[in-house]
Amino acid sequence: MMFRVICPNSTSRTTRLSFQGVIVCGWALLSLGCGAGPQAEFKYREATDDLISDAERSVKSTLKDSFGTPNELVAWERFPINYGGIKGAVASAAGDKAVIVTLEGESEKIRNKTPILWLTGSVAGDKTPLVTVAGFNAETKQLTLAGVSELPNAGDRFVVGFGEDLQLGRHVYMKNCMHCHGVSGDGDGPTGQFLNPRPRDYRNGQFKFTATKSGEKATRDDLHRIVKYGIPGTYMPSFLLLGERETKVVVEYVRWLAIRGEFEKRLVAELSSDYSETSIADSVRKAEAAYAEKKKNKEEAEKPLSANKVAKAAASEFAKYSKEDLPAAIEETANLLTDAWTRAEEPDTVIVPSIHRVDDTAESRERGRLLYMSDKTKCYTCHGMTGRGDGAATEDFWPKPGTTEKFANRGLHDEWGNQLKPRNLTLGQYRGGRRPIDLFRRMYAGIKGTPMPAFGGTALKDNEIWDLVNFVMSLPYSSRQPSPAAGGNMAKLDEKPAH
Amino acid sequence: MGRFWALFFIVTAVITFVVSWISPSMGWWFPTDGVAVFGMAQSTLGRKIDDLFYLILWIVSVTFVATNVALGYALWRGATIKPEEKVWFSHGSHSLEVIWTIVPSVILLFIALYQLDVWAAYRVRGFIKDSDGKPKQIVAVAEVTARQFEWRIRYPARGKTLKPIPQADDIYTVNELHVPTGDLVSITLRTDDVQHAFFVPELRVKQDAVPGKLIPVWFDTLVTKDYEMLCAELCGWGHYKMKAKLVAQSTEDFEAWKDKVSEEQFDDGYRKPAE
Ligand SMILES: [Cu+2]
What is the C-alpha separation between A495 and A369, in angstroms, rounded? Predict the structure, then answer.
């Protein structure tokens, strides 16, 4: 299995793939580095570095082969990412170095020397030399080629400038986003550590403010809105003047980083329990403790293997695993991500209320208030009786997800382990957007990756959510100011209605 | 050698003068993007500020030419003086000192008094007269909040007036300030964090946003187009990111735009299910 390096102004190069035959086709290597600033590197997760050396090497080379480096991106075609380029097909030959083509979409300008990737036909395949554009006539649709040994046939499909969008996205990202979100999208850029909330770590594949149902990824549209309008109340700024194309491609790049990050996370999680230094040390320790225990009770016991021997055994086991099961694990992870990100773009995934917003009347707000104070929603436990984000939950110590160990600090935390305050609803500042539909979606699907739960579908009916939206949206303007006499706490929010 | 330096400084002064003189016609001047003539300001007050600027430029130019002629003359005379000629020392000349004290003072005093009107128009009172001679009403269009590193803008709903406290039907935008062309509009400038400065170069409007203060800034726009809007106070590492857009549009377009934004902002997302 070969890769093709496509780099404007450079020649092709082929490299070998470490796990043969896993992915049948659809790899193309984009060299996006050509003269593009200083060398940047993708960082690996701590869990990746914790793997035993063979496993670590294997994971890292898989990542490198599938995604490349920041300066030499690799497009793994199976993922639903718009890598960019103009698709087309050969209509007929025109002379010995030119063809008449049909292009998909607008064929504004095709720059000379743009590489052409052949998808089908006798010229397709990795062994053919790099073909580039030597000229294009937009009127006659005649494409003159450079570097062809044999002319493609009519019907052969190709992409001109494959990967250009990802390349531009990388460029926009490095210029505008990297210093907060980091080269790898881990939220650990040079300025990131000084911000609260921290810049998003994309590598969980998780985004907070989405239009999709709970458990689903973000749509392109969601990310587009975030980049355009920023997240008020946080350091995520608005990039309104970035330009439509730049915004579009940087969103693709963010999605691509998210996929790369989650691919690493899932693959490593697959291996960690058996092939990490920590798990091996753990099992050695446990075996020794059991042995000591038995010895103490004067029971018959076999001396456990030395740490060295266990490590060796793990290494040889991994050698077997990497031949037999690893390709399948990679395939499965890639499939899972492809499905999830494809599903996010399907209309059914997006939350659309089944009814119009309930009229914003005093009665509706009152119904909303009662829901807010009810044990069905428990909104008040987090957002507080007066909506100031100071509910009782902010005083408790919470366990880390999936463990019994508690966080060192009081209050809620998000999936990234950062301390998180429930929103102060009296400020009228909504990070995910202030449209009623935005708030509806926040309550319907929760805020992903945070303790803010999903209420839609099961717990609350759509009309109830609208009542809550009306109530929440009235809070910043409500005349129910908390009275100082009540200790700044609790106005009359928890009072029962008069009727 | 003396002659060389005399010539050197004379030629330098002449080159400086010529380059400055031709620079407007060469486009080495205030930014111009087609509408403006020689980078002329696009607001009534901006043009008055420009007039002041040009007045001062004239005064400075005349002074520059006069001093350089005197300097050139003195250098050349000194370099070519014959050994037997007697030199004239001006040092300690009482009448000369009186002259060069009084003349600049008069000029400075004149500038100080002459600019008062523009200053007052910029900071204290409205300045544009309607056709009937009455001062134009100032329309409060929006509250502009600078923060690291963006501009967040709040408008009253169509037909409403801007209130100091947010209202439920207010309209919000970010990095895009819309105003009706021709009207004398004012914004309330504030900051969420550190000091910033609201700056629209083409309108010659510049005002610091100071923490804890609500500062009214008023201006009009003479041409319907997009203007560059910047932060002019180094406010942190992301200072350069605070570039935004000021959109001047006709009153009808402005109202229509408000309707559009309001509709989007109150979108409830309900879409008739496709049959
Ligand atoms: Cu600033």
Answer: 10
Asked whether residue B175 falls in the same domain as residue B258, the answer is yes
Judging by beta carbons within 10 Å of its beta carbon (0-12, 13-18, 19+), is residue A481 exposed, middle or buried?
exposed
A352 chain-B contacts, CB cut-off 8 A: 269-271
* Averaged pLDDT, A294-313: 83
> Are B71 and B145 members of one domain?
no
What's the rounded Cα separation, in Å, for the pair A164 and A83?
Answer: 7
pLDDT band at A489 (very low <50, low <70, confident <90, very high): very low
Tokens 């382990």 correspond to A417
pLDDT score at B106: 96
Q: Measuring CA to CA, which residue among A399, A387, A416 is closest to residue A197?
A: A416
- Whether residues B79 and B189 share a domain: the answer is no
pLDDT tens digits, one per residue of A87-97: 888 888 887 78
Q: What is the mean pLDDT of residues A417-423?
A: 90
H/E run at residue A28: strand A27-30
Nearest chain A residue (CA) to B245: A241
The count of domains in chain B is 2
CATH of domain A362-488: 1.10.760.10
| Interchain CB distance below 8 Å, A240 and B244 | yes
Higher pLDDT, B52 or B130: B52
Would you say B220 and B182 are in contact if contact means Cβ atoms under 8 Å apart? yes
Q: Does A455 have pLDDT greater than 90?
A: yes
Residue B123 belongs to some domain of the structure: no
User: A162's torsion region: left (phi>0), alpha (psi -120 to 50) or beta?
Assistant: beta
- Rounded to the nearest angstrom, the gap between the alpha carbon of residue A103 and the centroid of all alpha carbons in its chain is 31
The answer for B 250-269 residues in CB contact with A (under 8 A) is 264-269
pLDDT digits (tens, 9 = 90+) for A23-36: 333 334 444 444 44
Query: Are B149 and A353 within 8 A, CB to CB?
Result: no
- The ipTM, to two decimals, is 0.81
Taking only the tens place, the pLDDT of each residue in B150-179 is 999 999 999 899 998 899 999 999 999 999
Distance of alpha carbon A117 from alpha carbon B79, whole angstroms: 76
3-state secondary structure of A495: coil
Domain C-terminal end among B88, B111, B127: B88
Res. B74: pLDDT tops 80: yes
Q: Give the domain range for residue B24.
A: 2-88
CATH code of the domain containing B208: 2.60.40.420
- Residue contact A355–B175, C-beta within 8 A: no
Structure pTM? 0.86
What are the sequence ranges of the domains in chain A? 2-75, 86-161, 362-488
Class of domain A86-161: mainly beta
Which of B48, B63, B88 is the C-terminal boundary of a domain?
B88
Give me the pLDDT at residue A327, please: 92
> Same CATH topology for A86-161 and A362-488?
no
B251 and B151 co-located in one domain: yes
